[in-house]
Amino acid sequence: QVQVVESGGGLVQAGGSLRLSCAASGSAFSINNISWYRQAPGKQRELVATISSGDKTNYADSVKGRFTISRDNTKNTVYLQMNGLKPEDTAVYYCNVAAIIDYRPRSFWGQGTQVTVSS
Fold first, then answer.
1. Exposed, middle or buried, 118 (CB in 10 Å: 0-12/13-18/19+)?
2. pLDDT per residue over 28-63, tens digit each?
3. Average pLDDT over residues 63-70
4. How confident is the model over 4-25, as pLDDT tens digits?
5. 84 near 76, Cβ under 8 Å?
6. Are strands 104-109 and 2-7 parallel, antiparallel or unpaired?
7. Cα–Cα nearest to 89, from 69, 58, 111, 119
8. Cβ–Cβ contacts within 10 Å for residue 65, how many?
9. How far is it, in rounded angstroms, from Cα 109 to Cα 97?
10. What angle do CA 65, 71, 77 make, to 5 degrees?
11. Spatial distance between the Cα atoms of 20 and 93, rounded to a whole number of angstroms
């Protein structure tokens, strides 16, 4: 199993910044992609950003140029730097880890961290 723990959420004014962290831990696994999703009240969960094992990144159009995803493989940790935050970025942010365990693909989610952007 892989444990996924997010941190770094909070309340910030519009235009401000936050950095989210996602730490993966466990035994006998290798990580492929790590992604950040978000879910606002009454809305479906949406993909925000993904980083591959080769550090290839992809972003939702709504966050391009404002958010940056990066990873520290030595710590099995991924970061989401969020700049220029807008009220519409308010959501619970979830980290998803795509891992290989015993040669089988598995997907693990964290518990989520709340991001609130005030206008």
1. exposed
2. 688 889 999 999 999 999 999 999 988 999 999 999
3. 98
4. 999 999 999 999 999 999 999 9
5. no
6. unpaired
7. 119
8. 9
9. 7
10. 125
11. 9
